[in-house]
Amino acid sequence: MRVIDLSSPIDARNWEPEPLSHTVLSPGEAALHMSEEMLKHFGVRFDPAVLPDCELLSIDTLTLTSHTGTHIDAPAHYGTRASYGEPKTVEQLPLDWFHRPAFVLDLTDHGTGAVDADVIKAELDRIDYHPEPLDIALLNTGADALAGTPAFFTDFTGLDASAVDLLLDLGVRVIGTDAFSLDAPFLDMIKRYQASGDADVLWPAHFLGRDREFCQIERLAALGSLPPHGFTLSCFPVKIHGAGAGWTRAVALLD
Q1: pTM for this predicted structure
Q2: 14 in a structural domain
Q3: Following CA atoms 192, 76, 9, 61 in sequence, which dihedral angle do they give, to the nearest 10 degrees?
Q4: 234, 1 Cβ separation under 8 angstroms
Q5: In a domain, 16, yes or no
């Protein structure tokens, strides 16, 4: 079996629109920290000099959003109310949604904006694939080549409501993309809204989750290395209580 990593890293060196920090307490610093904490909380004195090289274990502290790096959006991310009941937070999601056969749709030639259901139908016909219920749909937009730059957040292909509706009608409950968002970029949506006055162009792929229960995987990577179908995607979300999203280490399993 081949295992292909489809996850983008959480890297504080890269540009992000939301603050991201990563500080490291070295093994030597952690030894002193542990000694101080033992005395503070438990009244126990411990001399770290007895440890090999006066070192304990390193500690990483990160400040970031749950939408940094490869992550899964839960229905609670889309709004506080849903027509199908209380929207689930990430720890409430059914795990059997996240280890499933998957298929890849190639959207690399469509540029910045959103594609509709006709594009999805044509691509399914091209790869000659008919999804089974709970198959995971993956969108290869090529956006991962821009990861770590401001362009990653402004230049990519998303889906409109009709495209999401079509995939959900086929039984899909998880849609993944290598782009920043399943919707078109923010600036693209705002320009179309200002030109038309039509609020339906604003976050249609996300807001559809208020009427139909599904999840998104955003900021995947290496989707271009996969066959169109014939593999399993494993992408369990991190169990963060009450959260609208959770990070995942998404991998493709190929026989």
Answers
A1: 0.94
A2: no
A3: 130
A4: no
A5: no
State the Cα–Cα distance between residues 214 and 175, nearest whole angstrom: 8
> What is the distance between the alpha carbons of residues 140 and 223, in angstroms, rounded to a whole number?
6
In the chain, how many domains are there?
2
Q: Do residue 46 and residue 77 come from a single domain?
A: no
User: What phi, psi does 33 have (nearest 5°)?
Assistant: -60, -45
Please identify which residue in the block is written with the tokens 């694939």.
129
**Quick one: tokens of 169?**
């009608």
233 and 176 Cβ atoms separated by less than 8 Å = yes
Classify 230 in phi/psi space as left (phi over 0), alpha (psi -120 to 50) or beta. Answer: left
Q: Which amino acid is at 70?
A: T
H or E stretch covering 231:
strand 231-234
Q: What pLDDT, in 10s, does the model give residues 37-70?
A: 999 999 999 999 999 999 999 999 999 999 999 9
**Containing structural domain, residue 40:** 21-63
